[in-house]
């Protein structure tokens, strides 16, 4: 015995580090199928992850709807010749906007989930307590 006092027993297990690879895998794999925010939920930010999920699923659905259904089944070819070129341009423009928005959201949520894991692990290293 060196005379040092024992650490207080809080009754709960010590906090576990979050694996950046797991956050990355969840974000990328599930993000590719329209389920964004899984890496945030893993990192302990369930509210932010749920918000990303609510945002990413309809956005991904719109991309699929516009790009695969309308263009894929020839919807744009079967319209009136007078209106056809304008409608085709409009649908392609809207589809491109949805696709660009989803791609931006996808990459942002991947990098942000990794950053959150680093912040979480850094806080545990410093204080021994999770930040959130």
Description:
- The chain crosses the membrane at residues 23-43, 50-78, 90-111.
- It comes from Cenarchaeum symbiosum (strain A).
- This is TM2 domain-containing protein.
- This protein is an all-alpha fold.
- The protein contains four helices and no strands.
- The chain has one domain (20-127).
- The chain has helices at residues 20-31, 38-42, 46-70, 84-127.
- The two termini are 35 Å apart.
Short description:
Helix content is 65%, strand content 0%. It is mainly α.
CA radius of gyration: 23 Å
Profile the largest sheet: none
How many β-strand stretches?
A: 0
Portion of residues in beta strands equals under 5%
SSE pattern:
HHHH
User: Per the principal axes of the C-alpha atoms, what is the gross shape?
Assistant: rod-shaped
Between the first and last Cα atoms, what is the distance in angstroms? 35 Å
Give the SSE map:
Elements: H1 20-31, H2 38-42, H3 46-70, H4 84-127
Helix pairs in contact: 1-4, 3-4
Summary tags:
4 helices; rod-shaped; 132 residues; 65% helix
């Amino acid at each position: 015995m060196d005379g040092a006092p024992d650490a207080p027993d809080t009754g709960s297990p010590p906090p576990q580090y979050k694996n950046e690879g797991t956050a990355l895998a969840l974000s990328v794999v599930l993000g590719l199928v329209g389920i964004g925010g899984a890496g945030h939920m893993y990192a302990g930010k369930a509210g932010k992850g749920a918000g990303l999920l609510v945002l990413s699923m309809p956005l991904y659905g719109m991309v699929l709807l516009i790009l695969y259904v309308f263009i894929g089944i020839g919807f744009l070819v079967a319209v009136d010749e007078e209106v056809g070129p304008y409608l085709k341009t409009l649908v392609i423009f809207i589809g491109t906007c949805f696709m660009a928005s989803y791609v931006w959201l996808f990459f942002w949520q991947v990098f942000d989930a990794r950053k959150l894991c680093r912040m979480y692990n850094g806080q545990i290293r410093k204080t021994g307590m999770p930040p959130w």
